[in-house]
Amino acid sequence: MKAFLAAKLHRLRVTEANVDYAGSVTIDEEILNAAGIEPYERVQLNNFSNGRTWTTYVLPGPAGSRAFCLNGGAARFGVPGDIVVVLTYRFAEEYRPARVVVLDDENRIARVSVYGEGK
Predict the structure, then answer these.
(1) Is the pTM of this model over 0.85?
(2) How many domains does the chain have?
(3) Which domain holds residue 100?
(4) Residue 24 annotated in active site
(5) Catalytic site residue from 21, 40, 49, 57
């Protein structure tokens, strides 16, 4: 089995950093649904603004809120306004196309596409 990209949230903007929370990241439920990311799913985050990369799990935020909150220790990895990419992976024998959600500067869904449809 190999690990393949399953979903990507591209250019998600941090809206809050809450160090007093137990952990994880919170993302607007509509954004998660557009990418096919499940609550409590493992995610890798890459902060474009400071170069930090880390892994945690995701919690759903209120639908339509456009929220992206770094919680607990992750709150030390970014500040509101930072731009982050969120990735999930699947284990499989062969590649299946990945869903990609591109967000605008206010965390509105700008485009949903699929990587590797022709494979």
Answers:
(1) yes
(2) 1
(3) 2-115
(4) yes
(5) 57
